[in-house]
Amino acid sequence: xxxYEAFDPDVEINxxxxxxxVKEGMGxxxxxxxxxxxxxxxxxxxxxxxxxxxxxxxxxxxxxxAIADELQPHVLDRLGEQIPEVAEWPNDFDxxxxxxxxxxxxxxxxxxxxxxxxxxxxxxxxxxxxxxxHNPYPCxxxxxxxxxxxxxxASMDSFVFIEETGSGCxxxxxxxxxxxxxx
Length: 183
Prior knowledge:
This protein is α+β, with helices and mostly antiparallel strands. The chain has a single domain, classed as H-NOX domain, CATH 3.90.1520.10. It has 6 helices and 7 strands. The strands form 2 sheets. A 4-stranded antiparallel beta sheet has the order 4-5-7-6. The chain is globular. This is 4-vinyl reductase 4VR domain-containing protein. It comes from Halobellus clavatus.
């Protein structure tokens, strides 16, 4: 399964998440980026997203793909990196491993309706671990998300580095990617 293809047609994403990413995340780049995101959503039938509604994940993924095609994939990396700052996030912890484990909790809270996928973190050393992302989101978005969470909980003098280390990748049609995270 490639990026931008929902695992299940019944999966939905929370409207508050859509609004946060479009208004807070894309809005941090520029008003024109935010407008482009809103236009991409409207092209998928999501006009005036409401925080208490749920929307088809496939429509959201189609909008994501349109944004990446027009604005370049690096935008998704930077957007992913901002998510822990702009979204409601579980944060009753203060370590990188706990923060990385929380990605799955946040993902599960904001998606519903079938096979939504998951994120799994396993610590492999004092300041390293592997994150497997089994979801339909694009690789640049997940890399940015992982980096953003790790940076939030790493010490000020740490350098957070993400390296794709798995044997498969969603860019090549697989349904998951694995990254090694160093902090």
